[in-house]
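From the methods appendix. Each design record in this collection lists the tokenized structure first, followed by the designed amino acid sequence. Records were kept in a plain field format so they could be parsed without special tools. The example shown here is representative of the layout used throughout.

RECORD:
FOLD TOKENS (225 positions):
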């Protein structure tokens, strides 16, 4: 029975390796943290992440915190966030995003998570990108807006789709309720994992309907397509 308890993981154990955390460590031990594959540091148009998204006229730049390593620690963190309801970890990861990119986020007006379709939101109980957005908000003290960009199409999961199929799958999946709300605003668009960027491009198409809106994109992780 004790073994089962250990397997479940205590809140004071590392989510990466399950070793006990020491003082000042939160969720992830220093060793796991050290070996997490770090992404790019700056949100600008020259980042690799930006190359995928540059077609939107409102787009300013993009970055991501971690590279996705299949079967590695980043995948484990994402699994905890997306499927294990570990929302406290999600807020913490959002706070890491906010701290690491703070200097690029001074001009942000609204933090906007990629929305889930209401059906999926009901099933999961939370939007993982919104949890990350809350963590970022804790650091940069800017509001999260989760009800102006909405998902109107309940798309299938993108995981096993080709780039072309992904673009088709998310086409017209999003809508903006009040276009004027984002007029002249700097938006920080948040995603958990970006791969081809097709979801983010569709979101930017909608946000880009507002006048003189500027969009920065930040993802927790980037996976190679
Ligand atoms: Zn660890």
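DESIGN:
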């Amino acid at each position: 029975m004790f073994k089962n308890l250990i397997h479940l993981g205590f809140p004071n154990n590392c989510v990466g390796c399950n070793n006990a955390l020491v003082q000042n460590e939160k969720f992830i031990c220093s060793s796991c943290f050290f070996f997490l594959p770090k992404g790019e540091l700056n949100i600008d148009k020259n980042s690799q992440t930006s190359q995928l998204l540059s077609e939107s006229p409102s787009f300013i730049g993009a970055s991501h915190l971690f590279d996705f390593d299949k079967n590695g620690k980043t995948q484990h963190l994402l699994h905890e966030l997306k499927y294990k309801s570990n929302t406290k970890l999600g807020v913490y990861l959002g706070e890491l995003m906010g701290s690491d990119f703070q200097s690029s986020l001074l001009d942000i007006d609204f933090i906007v998570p990629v929305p889930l379709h209401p059906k999926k939101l009901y099933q999961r109980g939370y939007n993982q990108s919104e949890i990350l957005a809350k963590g970022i908000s804790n650091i940069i003290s800017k509001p999260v807006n989760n009800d102006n960009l909405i998902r109107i199409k309940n798309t299938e999961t993108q995981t096993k789709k080709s780039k072309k199929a992904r673009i088709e799958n998310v086409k017209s999946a999003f809508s903006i309720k009040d276009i004027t709300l984002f007029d002249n605003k700097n938006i920080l668009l948040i995603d958990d994992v970006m791969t081809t960027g097709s979801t983010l491009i569709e979101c930017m198409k909608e946000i880009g309907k507002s006048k003189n809106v500027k969009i920065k994109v930040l993802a927790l992780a980037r996976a190679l397509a």
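APPENDIX NOTE: Residues 9-222 form a domain with the Rossmann fold fold (CATH 3.40.50).
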